[in-house]
Amino acid sequence: MKFYEKHPKILLAVDSIIFGFNENERELKLLILKRNFEPAKGNWSLMGGFVAPEESIDGAAERIVKELTGLENVYMEQLFAFGGLTRDPGGRIVSVAYFSLIKLNDYDRELAKKHGAYWISLSELPDLIFDHNEMVTKALRKLRIRARTQPIGFELLPEKFTIPQLQGLYEAIYQTPFDKRNFRRKLLSMNLLEKLDEKEKETSKKGAFYYKFNQEKYEELLLKGFNFEI
Amino acid sequence: MKFYEKHPKILLAVDSIIFGFNENERELKLLILKRNFEPAKGNWSLMGGFVAPEESIDGAAERIVKELTGLENVYMEQLFAFGGLTRDPGGRIVSVAYFSLIKLNDYDRELAKKHGAYWISLSELPDLIFDHNEMVTKALRKLRIRARTQPIGFELLPEKFTIPQLQGLYEAIYQTPFDKRNFRRKLLSMNLLEKLDEKEKETSKKGAFYYKFNQEKYEELLLKGFNFEI
DNA sequence: ACAAAAGTGTTACGGATACACCCATGT
DNA sequence: ACATGGGTGTATCCGTAACACTTTTGT
């Protein structure tokens, strides 16, 4: 039984804003690529693709990220549906944008290379095709809002991280320095970080203790009405 | 010059969560209708419609609201794109949901009647078709977040309103009482409300002064980095 | 005179901010 | 011994929350 058959269909795409972070650098990166098909071939672009009839839009977004990075089960959130009539000169396309957070050391370098993908610092972002710069701006704004009230920062860090690394991440996201005493106090006061015995000794002589985020504890606290807040 | 021609197209719809408020009652209302076509004919549903090839998704959302209420230029915000494979038993449809805020006295009663539409209190919301209840839940959550940090409450009130009416609106949105001294102080301290000489005398013998929201002043303050916050 | 809603001030508390020195260790 | 980044405590400020009585006026 089929309904709605007389209604016109539309090309539907997804585009992925893929954020990456490396705990040793201090910048948030974005994965973009040289587009290898028309229109706008050769220009910088986000990774995207069309939604197939037999896949959900979330599924399409996951497929796109996996094609480019080899990663599955990464943090992903729907950003916005872009549906202006003239956003893509190649035709009338509605695109649902998603943003993802990945650890910069995890992705598949071969796959990325094959697609002509590069990590770009946010501060050096070039002009992208169509409305992709607008997508990035919107994604960054949403990321900043999210990172304040949900513990998604940890998606960008390895399992073990130091407090200075965590602070570096937040400083990269918000592009502003934090007071290290206040930052540490605030984070530790939530009792969500587990201190390990091991120290990170690359970046300082004294060494900084590793911590890890306790997801189970977070979920437990959530049920009691706890709100993560930075 | 056409590109992308070999890619499959998809049915794209919009659904509208239309919130309404009447300053004399104390409840937030939702406009829903009895669906008059298959599938799920006769069940409660949000107002929706398909996106035409020659209209933007925002345009489709505006058209839908106008068809049902006769209103244009109402506050409207994109909520979320729902793209699960089985969300509509009538076929594979991706739907972009929007929510709108309207003043309950403004809409066209004839149009609404013709579509079989009714205003329902949030507390009495029935089962809606497909994922429409989920849409409403999500819209309500977003409305609550927005109303805290942007002056959108005024979209639900007439140009002239009293402080107790404004408080009643916020209490309806958040389903929780506020202290009237603190509420009044906070709102007035932003210097965005202009006190009029006139009083509203229906609901009390003493009468309450009317105020109006000063949009120009708000925009001016925004430029200086002001943040609306309740 | 009384009922019913409008309007008004002060205090206490807690979280946020600002700020400077000591510690550990590799060279 | 010194340079480098890690780690710590306290005082102040400000916004938030709690709370009860007076005013106006229609009946």
From TrEMBL, chains A, B:
Domain Nudix hydrolase intervals: 11-142
Identify the Pfam families for this entry. Answer: NUDIX, WHD_NrtR
| SUPFAM superfamilies according to UniProt | Nudix, Winged helix' DNA-binding domain
Stored InterPro entries:
NUDIX_hydrolase-like_dom_sf, NUDIX_hydrolase_dom, WH-like_DNA-bd_sf, WH_DNA-bd_sf, WHD_NrtR
The protein's name in its UniProt record: NUDIX domain-containing protein
Q: Which organism is it from?
A: Maribellus comscasis
